[in-house]
Amino acid sequence: MVDPALRLSLLDRSRTRAGEPDAAALRASLARAVRAEQLGFDRFWVAEHHGVPGVAGAAPAVLLAAVAGRTTAIRLGSAGVMLPHHQPLVVAEQFAALTAFAPGRVDLGLGRSPAFTAPVRRALRETDRDFPADLAEVRAFLTGTAEITLHPQPAGPVPLHVLATGRGLEVAAALGLPVLVGGPLLGVAGDPEPGLEALARYRRTFRPSPQQPGPRVAISLDVLVADTAAEAADLLLPEAEAMARARTTGTFPALEPVAAVRAAVRTPRQQQYLDATAAAAIAGTPAQVERRLAELLDRTGAAELVASSSTFDRAALAASDAALAALFGRTIAPRRG
């Protein structure tokens, strides 16, 4: 069993499915959050994407408000709100309002990734912004140290988290904030040394803050568990295919059934991207996943695993979530805090 002291979370991006309306993806995210609480997950994260055909999660605060109304204990977070798309005051107001419905359960993850395409960036009025300054401004509003008093005032603290790639780790260390890292920094499918060096630098340069007295790392990646390794590999295919199409066509599509992905004709470059996406995930039987997760968690020193898994078959995804919770020994309600 993986160390049960570690936090266990899900990141749900409200992935759309071929042949379904977008609203079905949002309803499925809500149902998944309810199941996650029942399974003993500690936190349920949602994401922000704009104008992406394969993702219905465009409004984290709205979705989290719906989740707050259906849950009582699991923590709720954004992974994350992209500050280049918003004014800091508005972000702070939205998450302060959320605390009225889920006091003591709200986390605000902040990132700076640009929108997916140029038209979306124009629609969002994206400009070059000072991410550290914006982040500090959000914190000032939420902690009552800004020149404007926030209304509604938060019903308790709203912990901030930084979605960190590269310089984001430096920003988090300077401001004394926890980080959520994924992708190449984890070195799952490649050389882990650059990522480990970056995490070591974050820990070495961390400046304690009232929220976070010491460095804290959460790691995010696709984790899928099935009865056999072959079944788990199949579960990876829909997301890997979508990523391959996005990298080569500029359009991130809805998830397709495994059979359709297997029958798809793709270029050598698309096959390369598909293979790379699958390699960056952890998938297999419970024993295989447990072993690989233990190695990754030990290597990164992470305090929290955030499983960002998705697949076309929602029943299979639910079974995978339950199997993952079992690996962490979760049979009771999630812990607070």
In short:
This protein is α/β, with parallel strands linked by helices and 337 residues long. The chain has one domain: Luciferase-like domain (TIM Barrel), CATH 3.20.20.30.
Task: Please give a structural write-up.
About 45% of the residues lie in helices and about 15% in strands. It contains 12 helices and 10 strands. Helix 6 packs parallel to helix 7. It has a single domain, classed as Luciferase-like domain (TIM Barrel). By secondary structure, it is an alpha/beta fold. It has helices at about 20-40, 60-70, 90-100, 120-125, 130-145, 165-175, 195-205, 230-250, 260-265, 270-280, 285-300, 315-325; strands at about 5-10, 45, 75-80, 105-110, 160-165, 180, 215-220, 225, 280-285, 305.
SSE topology sketch:
Layout: E1 7-12, H1 22-39, E2 43-46, H2 60-70, E3 75-82, H3 88-101, E4 106-111, H4 118-123, H5 131-143, E5 160-163, H6 167-175, E6 179-182, H7 193-205, E7 217-221, E8 223-225, H8 229-249, H9 258-263, H10 268-279, E9 282-284, H11 286-300, E10 304-307, H12 314-327
Helix pairs in contact: 1-2, 1-12, 2-3, 3-5, 6-7, 8-10
Highlighted features:
alpha/beta, two-stranded parallel sheet, 337 residues, TIM Barrel, 12 helices, eight-stranded parallel beta barrel
User: What structural class should be given to the helix and strand makeup?
Assistant: alpha/beta
The amount of helix comes to 40-55%
Order of helices and strands: EHEHEHEHHEHEHEEHHHEHEH
Distance between the termini: 23 Å
Q: Total helix count?
A: 12
Task: Write down the overall geometry.
Answer: globular
CATH superfamily: Luciferase-like domain
Provide the residue-averaged pLDDT: 92
Identify the CATH class: Alpha Beta
* Rounded Rg: 19 Å
For the record, the CATH architecture stands as: Alpha-Beta Barrel
Low-pLDDT residue spans: 332-337
Number of strands: 10
CATH topology annotation: TIM Barrel
Strand % is 5-15%
- The strand order across the widest sheet is 1-2-3-4-5-6-7-10
Number of domains: 1
* Major sheet attributes: 8 strands, parallel, barrel
